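Example S7 (structure tokens).
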């Protein structure tokens, strides 16, 4: 298992709770789940059905949005009853889910291409990529016209060679065989005679698959070359003459503006744009901050409200008087906190999330002390309720002054920041509209800037001409090669047509022989032989039809590839370079075509990442096996380049032989792409193999957690030990399957007044239980004294 100490925490879950309402009763499905997920780390969630694993996964993705606790994704809080659209988009792009059933993510009426395209469109990924590309597309293509043309011609040669080289060996070889072909019905079986000419199609398909892959690779290289040159242009990694020309053009633009404005006004114009962006960002951050604050308080209010209902239900459904009043006291303390937080919610609307957590932690500590001092000692009498309420009214007095001051300071900071920027904007506007300011430049300075640009342009063109002369020689040589390869391609196409006709003649002769045998068998009334020949004819015809259909798709695919190449020519600006009449309408058309090209390349890459062929993009989900469908689901999850993947039993519905392939694929992808993954599963041996860290859940709580190797080596919690007993092993394969009883005796020891907590027992190993229980569980392993992590003061922990 790899260490995650130096890795960034990409997802943090703090005290996650999920309540479900059923016939007036509140059920706590998830209770206080907390853990961290690092980049490239796999965290396994184990437990029986109903333990709350899937509920945790769905809560992270906000498939349930009414949960309590905090979910922090890449330093952004994504939990809360309602989050901003900005955070919603942030979440959808960075977190993806893989479900147990592939059909949950696949629309059977759409092709794989359409299925994979959907997340790209929904998350505006295509829009962002094309927007970035076209921000300087014209300048990049104008800066490297001959370089792009040269590279494009090389690609054309490579594509022709990819077809011609294997075809030059294949078609002449089979031409000789097919011309002299004769069936040997005396010495060879029917199947051997069929294979002797059918191999033409088999070998042809193998060759054409290799050609397609080579052409796809060439196309990818051409696109990569454009991005390489784009980066070069953006980094000003150009020749001295190009750089001088670009700088002179910028200086002329500045000079034109300085003919209208003074230097002071020009500087004010530049600063105004920056300040307006800053103001917009400040106001957006303020709104987001206030919404997050509101969600945090609502989160605690909802939790207290649900706890009140749980306590009320517990006390109203018991005959034990002590238990009744214990739950009444708990209900009362939750009611106190609910009322107090509700009262101060609007007064503390500018507290940060950490400050709110401190506030709630202090409130809870104060309430617990209040409970121990005033409510716990109360004797059970008829007037108990009225006495308890009067004690609350007279003695409960939590001091929130410190937090009111912090809130006021935060509010002032926000408002003063906005006010300062607004004032600066007003100052810049006054400077811009000032009538006392005079233009900094006159006709003389403008002419000097124009002359500088013309001089730079002359040097640029002179250097460009020198370069172009050398390039033109290379282009002429490449044109000769293209002509030679094109003629060879046409000759091979002709030869292919002749071979295909000869194959059809031989194929017809083969089936004519079988039909003659069939006719003879019918005359002899040999029903068994008639049945066998009919079956043979049907099988062979199906084989030929399937192979011809596959080969026909090759021609279609080659057409698509050549279409992609033409689109790449648009991307490289070659059409624009060759055609001086290339106008704005053609550019709009080019943008549309290039957008489709980028979409296709992203979809093809995502399929390759999961071990599928690019050609699969145009098939439908029902045409794939279960393992392939799950790979498509993984490709769909990966295409948005997420930071986190929640895999909810992704291999449970797969054949055992396919499970290992999918698990290894997920493990490799997480490592290569630095993705954090929450792997939910029942299969304990699979979790042991794939997970770096394990969280064992029972009845909504994490009962044991830590490094996978450590937990599997020294399982402490009774529930964990029972789970591990259920793992099938080779060593006991000959023994009768033991029925493991998941007894809940440990829960009896965790009832009032014994309250369980989380304990640190060894490095990266935690267990949930009472103090007495945990000490008993660690004895056989001779571990040190366990430490209660729940009693660590929040503020002190933060300081550390």
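Recovered sequence:
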């Amino acid at each position: 298992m790899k260490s995650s100490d130096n890795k960034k925490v990409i997802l943090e879950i703090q005290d996650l709770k999920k309540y479900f309402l059923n016939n007036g009763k509140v059920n706590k499905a998830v209770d206080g789940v907390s853990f961290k997920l690092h980049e490239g780390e796999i965290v396994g969630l184990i437990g029986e059905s109903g333990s709350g694993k899937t509920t945790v996964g769905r809560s992270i993705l906000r498939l349930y949005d009414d949960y309590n606790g905090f979910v922090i994704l890449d330093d952004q809080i994504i939990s809360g009853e309602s989050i901003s659209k900005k955070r919603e988009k942030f979440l959808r792009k960075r977190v993806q889910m893989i479900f147990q059933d592939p059909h949950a993510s696949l629309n059977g009426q759409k092709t794989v291409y359409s299925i994979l395209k959907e997340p790209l469109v929904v998350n505006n990924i295509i829009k962002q990529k094309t927007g970035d590309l076209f921000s300087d597309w014209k300048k990049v293509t104008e800066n490297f016209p001959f370089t792009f043309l040269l590279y494009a011609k090389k690609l054309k040669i490579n594509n022709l060679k990819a077809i011609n080289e294997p075809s030059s060996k294949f078609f002449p070889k089979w031409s000789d065989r097919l011309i002299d072909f004769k069936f040997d019905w005396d010495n060879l079986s029917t199947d051997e005679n069929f294979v002797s000419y059918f191999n033409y199609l088999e070998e042809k398909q193998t060759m054409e698959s290799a050609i397609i892959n080579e052409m796809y690779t060439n196309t990818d290289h051409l696109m990569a070359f454009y991005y390489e040159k784009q980066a070069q242009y953006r980094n000003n990694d150009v020749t001295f003459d190009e750089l001088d020309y670009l700088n002179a053009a910028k200086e002329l633009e500045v000079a034109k503006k300085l003919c209208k404005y003074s230097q002071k006004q020009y500087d004010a114009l530049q600063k105004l744009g920056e300040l307006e962006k800053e103001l917009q960002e400040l106001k957006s951050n303020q709104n987001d901050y206030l919404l997050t604050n509101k969600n945090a308080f609502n989160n605690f209010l909802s939790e207290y409200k649900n706890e009140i209902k749980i306590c009320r239900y517990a006390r109203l459904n018991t005959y034990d008087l002590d238990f009744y009043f214990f739950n009444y006291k708990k209900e009362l303390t939750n009611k106190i906190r609910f009322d107090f937080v509700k009262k101060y919610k609007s007064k503390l609307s500018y507290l940060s999330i950490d400050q709110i957590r401190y506030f709630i932690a202090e409130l809870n500590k104060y309430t617990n002390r209040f409970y121990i001092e005033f409510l716990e000692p109360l004797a059970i009498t008829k007037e108990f309720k009225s006495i308890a309420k009067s004690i609350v009214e007279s003695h409960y007095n939590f001091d929130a002054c410190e937090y009111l001051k912090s809130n006021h300071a935060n509010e002032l900071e926000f408002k003063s920041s906005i006010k300062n920027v607004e004032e600066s904007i007003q100052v810049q506007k006054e400077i811009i509209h000032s009538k006392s300011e005079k233009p900094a430049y006159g006709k003389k300075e403008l002419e000097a800037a124009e002359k500088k640009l013309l001089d730079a342009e002359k040097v640029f063109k002179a250097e460009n001409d020198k370069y172009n002369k050398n390039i033109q020689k290379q282009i002429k040589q490449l044109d000769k090669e293209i002509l030679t390869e094109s003629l060879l391609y046409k000759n091979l196409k002709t030869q292919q047509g002749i071979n295909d006709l000869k194959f059809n003649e031989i194929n017809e002769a083969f089936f004519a022989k079988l039909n003659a045998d069939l006719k003879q068998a019918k005359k002899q009334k040999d029903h068994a032989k008639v049945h066998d020949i009919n079956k043979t004819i049907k099988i062979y015809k199906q084989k030929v039809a399937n192979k011809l259909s596959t080969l026909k798709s090759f021609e279609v695919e080659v057409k698509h590839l050549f279409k992609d190449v033409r689109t790449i020519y648009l991307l490289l600006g070659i059409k624009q370079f060759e055609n001086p009449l290339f106008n704005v309408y053609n550019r709009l058309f080019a943008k549309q075509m290039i957008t489709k090209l980028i979409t296709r390349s992203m979809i093809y890459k995502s399929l390759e990442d999961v071990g599928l062929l690019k050609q699969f993009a145009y098939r439908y989900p029902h045409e794939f096996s279960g393992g392939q469908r799950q790979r498509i689901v993984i490709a769909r999850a990966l295409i948005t380049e997420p930071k986190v993947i929640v895999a909810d039993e992704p291999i449970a519905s797969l054949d055992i032989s396919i499970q290992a392939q999918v698990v290894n694929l997920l493990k490799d992808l997480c490592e290569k792409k630095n993705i954090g993954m929450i792997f939910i599963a029942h299969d304990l041996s699979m979790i042991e193999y794939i997970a770096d860290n394990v969280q064992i859940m029972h009845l909504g709580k994490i009962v044991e957690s830590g490094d996978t190797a450590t937990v599997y080596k020294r399982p402490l919690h009774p529930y964990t030990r029972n789970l591990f007993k259920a793992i099938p092993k080779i060593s006991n394969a000959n023994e009768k399957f033991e029925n493991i009883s998941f007894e809940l005796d440990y829960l009896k020891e965790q009832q009032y007044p014994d309250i369980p907590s989380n304990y640190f027992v060894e490095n990266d190993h935690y267990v949930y239980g009472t103090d007495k229980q945990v000490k008993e569980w660690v004895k056989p392993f001779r571990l040190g004294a366990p430490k209660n992590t729940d009693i660590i003061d929040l503020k002190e922990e933060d300081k550390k």
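Notes on this example. Confidence is low (pLDDT under 50) at residues 793-800.
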